[in-house]
Amino acid sequence: MNAPILKIATLSAATAALVAACGGGGDDGPQAVTLDFAAYAGSAPVACGTAVSGLGSGNVSAQIKDFRFYIANVKMLRADGAEVPLVLGADDDWNITAGSDTLTLVDLEDASGSCATGTAARNATVKGTVPAGTYVGVKMTMGVPFALNHSDYATAKKPLDSQALAWSWQSGRKFAKIELTDPAGTGGTWKSNTFNFHLGSTGCTGNPASGQTVNCTTPNRMDFKFASFNPSTQKIAVDVKALVDGTDITVNQAGAAGCMSGGTDPECLNVFKALAIDWKADGTGTGLPINGGAAQTLFKAVAK
Amino acid sequence: MTAWRLWPLAGAALGAVLVGVAACGGGGTELLETRVASGAWTWTLPAYFPQPKVPDDNPMSVEKVELGRFLFYDKRLSGNGQQACAGCHHQDKAFTDGRAQSIGSTGELHPRSAQHLGNVVYHATLTWANPSLVTLERQMETPLFGERPIEMGVDDHNKEAVLDRLRTDTAASRYPQRFAAAFPGEAQPLHWANVIKAIASFQRTLISGNSRYDQWLSGKATLTAAETRGMNLFFGEKAECFHCHGSFNFNDQIVHAASRLVETPFHNTGLYNIGGTDAFPEPNRGVFELTAKAADMGKFRAPSLRNVEVTAPYMHDGTITTLEEVLRFYAAGGRHITSGPFAGDGRANRLKSDLVTRIELNDQEQADLIAFLKSLTDHQFLTDPRHANPFGSN
Q: Does the distance separating the beta carbons of A164 and B155 come in below 8 Å?
């Protein structure tokens, strides 16, 4: 959308949708933003059912087994550095707004081929509106805000009702579930058949008197930002090759198979480097973004 | 006092009668038991048991408890229809399964040993070592939906199909009617949240407080000389068992209706010390698995020792077979494994609780302690028809 520089509008969201729908004649109405996500390995798109080559320290091929993650609290950036929250549409299968938090489940698998345990429905976009104006960049968080993370799976609203993304051992959710598996299946040569990347808050504690989860010592929410980003010409590539850069995905040295955010799991060392989240081999990592995630390599802006 | 036998099979009408009896009580009768009501449910408890805590959003009712009992014993609740909750929780074993490590519905071996469910309503945290699981409702999502390991094996693909099995049930369980009765006012009550609420309500009725030890406390039975000597050792500073197993429930994590601040200690008992590094074997490293804090290595929740006679094998991984071995383990102040991948002297684990030290317990004293521990067996609990399989054999 190439909206001209305009004053911030104060229309309601409902009116905003109407104005956006009418298009063209927009003066100072809020403008629609669509952020597209796509699964990549390096510079090539990847999909369920097609082997992906050149992964990890062993430069091996793998099949995608799962590719889902939550994106929270998207903010569009103005040239002066101002951060403007993206207002999502009405709650639906993929989106929820709760208080000041917004959350979208991005699902880049389609249950085909090696992704059989997934869901056929996909969602590759975060859509919303911002006041009309010029925006030069975008920032967001991969993760589920604390206020939503520890809700009951059985009663939670969409998209928090996914059982696959439930993470009962920390009474929370998997913020991301990206899994790579031996292309030859269980009869293959990998010593550990599947490399699982599950991101989530760890060190969580509940209060037995209230029945609520009250604290997680290691939040593990991933912040990232593109100072320069144009949603109409660019999309956000999620680079699985960068995710496992430097990691041998065919073996599991210790801890869970792959990296399930374990504070001392050796497979998390390079993975968390790609996320730019503070992680230390001795378990003392804070789980906080390093420098706002400036050095992260997982998400890249690429041409549409 | 015959209240234990008076308590009928769950039924609203009889329950009301009993509440009436309770209200009339106290006419000079010595109060050895209390009846504590919560919503439409009344527990009969020893006087020294506190009022159980019930979540505000899941009040008790006779109908809900009975529905929960059916669900607890129903194999159709697992993804492949092969295993009920009761598959790993057998009433005659205080709701453990007698295995060192349990096996899930798909045949996957669980890294840990199924825990008993006696007085589970009072547990401040659930499972062996998880500070984040503080309600039965949340805990249940692990066996139902967990993928690592798979226990009941319910997932996004089959969770509606599993409910459909219940929706179309016309046999003894009559689920549509039972859900409607348990959750009045809900147009579509047969959903997962209510499945979980009903089973949790059933679990909250699994009270074990009528062992011979309890009867002795109430002046209704005597303990043998050996049991008495064992009890004095248990609660004394020599054996020091009571530090971690000292509450009315013989553990040290208790939550009840009046609780405000709740302590949730976890302990390393020196079961392992792989290669002298303090390490416990994966994936059974206790609270460390959640926190990655070095100090949490090998820390587990002290289990309640009620019915411990029938809950063998022991420890989180079932690696100690008998009570006699457990006593020798604690007398030694840890376990010295001399060979194999887990070799190491647990007695020297630097993270071991300072309450677990070498103690001089001769054979007689160990036998006395075991005699006392066996007095904690509540035979009524193990056979109580209110907790039994409503389908007959399953």
A: yes
Q: Give me the half-sphere count of Cα atoms (radius 13 Å) on the Cβ side of residue A31.
A: 23
**pTM value?**
0.86
Cβ–Cβ under 8 Å, residues A250 and A189: yes
Closest-CA distance, A169 to chain B, in angstroms, reads 7
Helix (H, G, I), strand (E, B) or coil at B3: helix
Q: How far is A232 from chain B (nearest CA, A)?
A: 34
Angle, helix B175-182 to helix B192-203, in steps of 10 degrees: 80
pLDDT in tens, B180-223: 999 999 999 999 999 999 999 999 999 999 999 999 999 999 99
Contacts of B281 (CB under 8 A, 6+ apart): B272, B274, B341, B342
Judge residue A240's burial from the number of C-beta atoms within 10 Å of its C-beta, 0-12 exposed, 13-18 middle, 19 or more buried.
Answer: buried
Contact call for A154 and B192, based on CB within 8 A: yes
| Candidate from B132, B155, B191 with C-beta closest to A170 | B132
Judge contact between A44 and A83, C-beta under 8 A.
no
Chain A residues 95-114 within an 8 A CB cutoff of chain B? none
Q: What is the pLDDT of residues B244-301, one digit of tens each?
A: 998 999 999 999 999 988 999 999 999 999 999 999 999 999 999 999 999 999 999 9
Is the confidence at residue A25, as pLDDT, over 60? Answer: no
Are the beta carbons of B134 and A206 separated by less than 8 Å? Answer: yes
Predicted complex ipTM: 0.81
Pairing outcome for strands A258-259 and A194-199: parallel
Are B337 and B272 in contact by the 8 Å Cβ rule? The answer is yes
Are the C-beta atoms of B73 and B86 separated by less than 8 Å? yes
The Cα B353–Cα B355 span in angstroms is 5
Tell which A residues from 223 to 252 touch B, by Cβ distance under 8 Å: none
